[in-house]
Amino acid sequence: MVKFSKPGASDGYEVMAGNAIRDALKDAAVDFKEIEQAYAGYVFGDSTCGQRAVYTAGVTGIPVVNVNNNCSTGSSALFMARQVVEGGLAECVLAVGFEQMEKGALGSKFTDRTNPLDKHVDVMNKVQGFNQAPPAAQMFGGAGREYRWKYGTKRETFAKIAEKARKHASKNPLAVFREVLSVEQILASDEVFDPLTRFQCCPPTCGAAAAIVCSSEFAKKKGISKAVQIMAQSMKTDFATSFDNDSMIKTCGFDMAVAAAKEVYEKSGVGPKDVDVVELHDCFTTNELLTYEALGLCPEGGAEKFILEGDNTYGGAFVTNPSGGLLSKGHPLGATGLAQCAELVWQLRGQAGERQVEGAEIALQHNLGLGGAAVVTMYKRAAV
Amino acid sequence: VSQAVAPKADCTLELSDADWLEMTSGKADPQKLFATGKLKISGNVMASQKLEFLKKIDRNSVAAPVAAAPVSGGGATAAHTPMAEKVFAALTERLQKNPQLGKEVDAKLTIKVKNPDFTQTYELGKANTTLTLSDEDLTALAKGQTTVKDLYMHGQLRVDGDLAPLHRLGIFNKLF
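^ inputs. structure came back:
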């Protein structure tokens, strides 16, 4: 992946993507000519940006498919690449994600047609109304409100997640926000949507990341060392519970994440207890907290205890978001899912430098987009 | 209609007269109208997310015919008479008459009322809970026109400290 940057300070999307692709090829010691297909993810951009991005690294006539799945776009591209290789249709495939974002909160680009999130917004209107805060913050902030109502979680507990994210990011040279912040500073930042303050919301970010997905036969044939294996992967979209429960937690994808995680645990044969390191979708601190429970890292209602006991960081039960997560590394929508993948690959290979999770053998990834899709992936070190 | 005085008219809303009346009388939600295509927005779309004010237009001024001459001093919202002191007097009386109610709350409640500002504290237990809400919302709560949960979910009731006592605030029910 390329170093993430603030809007307006990055290279063009095709330059960032080209750099990420070349880095991935070099890392895998694979030539672009060996890539049989490419899945290119981005949210904001005209049609076929995927081709333009891939062409920066090679123009070989291969199928290039553009992937768009909101904030889970990157892992959706990875999902497509993994399917085609697992299904035996190709041996070596590229998944790339990139985003060149504008400043400011996410908004709708097309106002002359049905808003794809209208069903989600309907629930929100009913439960908590609609105000001038950024819509995504209202959705995930509302889920946090509902959680607090149910379990009495203190405002400070959410801030502790942002504090941890900054601490982790301070060790990641590729992150955007590397300055360590205290819980007090986080709580004192501007209120965006109670209980969320500014430092508890991920920033609009520009960046790109890429992965080469190949069969184990291909890896063996090419003598690829330090490979990482996808043990299992699952994508789920909304269930009826997202819309008929008057629950912001469910509307924000809780049940999608639960179902995807369940499938991954079943397919991979490893449970949450076996996981060493996790990259999960912390677009807002409230969603990181909810995701601990959705992934079964702690029991439902147990997230506050989990956080206060330090089970989400070094020395605890799991290290969640060693990269700094979306909160601190940044969230270029199309790139995020593949940047999470890159971080976990480095962790499993022992290449994560100062932020290395000691002895990491099994890694879990969770990437979520409203609209919606949740992609959960389990990785382990491959014995090639 | 072109009565708006804005620094820069860069957000244009198009909708039917009927929908406009529905929206400004609070029956239809701007976001929903937008989502269903009944409200078209051009120009600065982000500004359209700040349309809450359109829902607060006084019913009477909405009902007035559009052709009528602009009325001066119509008052956008009905004036609210501060009630916090009366609410707390009634609550204090209730708690004195029935101490068991206070024991059920089991928390030190600090209630910060805004607009106008007024703070009241009740020592009803060890847990520390601070509630912040407007005088108007406190009044509505005391009158039984809204619930603690509804105010909280809509962001009109801010809670700091221990949240558990939030579920035990029946003491405000029908104070008037």
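Chain B has a mean pLDDT of 76. The longest strand of chain B covers residues 107-114.
thumbs up if we can close this ticket
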